[in-house]
Design brief:
The complex is a heterodimer of chains A (504) and B (305). Helix content of chain A is 33%, strand content 24%. Chain A is α/β, with parallel strands linked by helices and 504 residues long. The radius of gyration of chain A is 24 Å and the shape is globular. The termini of chain B are far apart. The chains are: A alpha/beta (504), B mainly alpha (305).
Amino acid sequence: MTHAIGVEAIGIGKHFGSFHALSDVSLKVRPGSVHGLLGENGAGKSTLVKCLLGYYQADAGSFVVDGREATIARPADADALGLGMVYQHFTLVPSMTVAENLVMSRRNVPGVINWRTEIDGLTQFMQRMPFKVPLNAVVGNLAAGERQKTEIIKQLYLERKFLVLDEPTSVLTPQEATEMLGLVRGLAHSGALTIVIITHKLKEVAAFVDDVTVLRRGRMAGTGAVKDLGPTDLTAMMIGEPHAPKDPERKGTPTSEARLAVTALRTADDGGRKGLSIDSLTVRAHEIVGIAGVSGNGQKELVEVLGGQRPYASGSVMVDNEPYFATREQSQAHDVRVLPEEPLRNGCVPPMTVVDNLNLRSFDTGAKKSWRWWLDRAGMAARGQSMIAAYGIRTPSPQAPIGVLSGGNVQRCVLARELDGDVRLLIVANPCFGLDVKAVAETRARIMAARNSGTAVLLISEDLDEILELADRIVVMHDSAVVHEMPAAGADPQEIGRHMLGHH
Amino acid sequence: MMDSVGTVLLAMLAGSLRVSTPFLFVSLGECLTEKSGRINLGNEGVLVLGAMVAYATSYETGSPWAGVLAAAVAGLLLGALHGGVCSLARVNDVAMGIAIMLAGTGIAFFFGKPYVQPSATLLPGIPVGFWSDNAQVRNALLVCPLFLLGIAAAVALHWCFNATRVGLRIRIVGDSQDAALALGLPIDRTRLLATAFGSALAGIGGAFLSLYYPGSWNEGLSSGQGLMAVALVVFSRWNPINCIYASLLFGAAGALGPSLQTVGITWGYYLFYAAPYIVTLVVLILTARGGRSLRGMPGQLSIGR
């Protein structure tokens, strides 16, 4: 194996037009260590690593790699120095096998590939690895955790000596995350690799990281060894204010009657993915039901069914004891709201304005849900403006197309729209995805407020902490089915994790 | 009775071997282009232009093989034009493909006028049925060398996509732009070349039309084979070997009407003539049932995104 190298960034500055993404940021990563790069969204973490990896050119400052000053003008330069990165959005080719992906990632791929020798070589290589992935599996069929491992294996295969992991645990179960971070830490401490982890999760930092550097609004907010810093110091560095209270106030107890009742729901298989098979799922008023599960275990399909985007083969979905097919009339009559995954794609019309998108639920109804022929432009604008103000949506103008907004602001827009007015049933998928720490606290408070005022909430989240914080009842999905159900009070994360993985 | 069934089947086999070749070449070309993540509806125009160029070149030089080569070059150039324009920002490949289709046919008709009358040297057939003393069998098994070339091209493409650097790179570019960027692959150049060489194959398909069967040049030579090839690629699941089967099936369906005529069934000629299109519809409906996404489709195709 190769040896780990140290990397130092000195006084890096980078601006895009008049916007200063980075000013005078320095980063020192010791060889063979795990270094955490922390900061809220937009703090400049990705800009910094993109400069280091040659995707951007820094305007000021310099890099020192393995003790020598390095000019990194192109990704190929970083590659030659042994610097690599695992992206949050995986860059494996989904239709190819693990073996094909590994071979094609090499710099010197032969013109004609002799698969027998390649597979032999890869099998031998895999035996030396701390963890294994099946060489002949098609990447598109692998679970997220396996893909992540494949990405790391690929970097080792490429003999990288310095690796940046961008939010590596965002798609993993707690067990997978612990296992993966343990492996990564082991690799670093064995001197094979130096690791930088970009993350939001303070718990992971405390457990697996040696040193941290915190960025805030493009500037250094602090740096140091984790053992000298407490979680409060880190949070303070990141947002400059203390964390939101962990146990929010709950008002009202769940009613006995189910507001949403899903029974014996089945959907067709889709491109090799198993269809949904949910025997029973209920949500009552004054209740948040949290669906925990590893990404890709049917949560997306469930939200699509409830939102009317996916037909189901058999079974029933009842809202207020009436069959529910998610037509516009029905969703308006029952006040059902959905915050889908990828809200820009599933819940917005990207070229339409922010105001129009904020009014998508209600533009065709007047007072008391009467049918409306002519749009009330002034009313729509006023409503839009008040949502923009209330949710702190940052948009160049209310008339800007929603597609130009950042992910976090699109999320806020859809959240504002879906929580507007009376909501009897709220279905939210990963509501805090891509939001910064402050916005996360606000969003969770809003969901809790909706519950307290009598809304039935179905919360689908890949963030177990979020479910533990908000839910009254927890349901675990695995392999497109509900495999476990428990009250949230006193729930053990390790047990939930085991069910998420299908062990019990 | 048995005899006439045998006659019909033999005629369909013969027809299949004959009619399938242009489908095979255009679908292989389209398959190559689509694997790189781009659609080329212009191959219908390339087919017609290839037919004209092949016929004219064969007439002028006396060598049908020079005609085949010229058709491939004409296809290559038209494909490169399509690929080049589509590389520009915000050009829609479907709309551009239709423009190329019309341009190709237009150019062919314009320059092809003088060649409608004269007769050029055609490609010779290979007597694969030499062992039989039945004239019908021998006639049916007179195979065009281009058909064999097409089979070889399909096998070569299949091998290329699975075991060569260039083939795997085409698949990466076609399946995941993110991965291609991360690997530093030249996306536009790959697509340009895949489109150009795909169109060259479609051009050879055109040469078959004018130099073998029907074996003449006129403006009604193609009946939409270039467009049907797009459907063929879909139900071949973007697999070159399946393109062979799909083309043969198509050819056989196309030969149904004429084959029935040989045994005296003349009613419904035009209905049987529509058989390939009915087969397309049925196969597409059967393979694309609700709720499923298309398996095997390159991820970057504009119709899939």
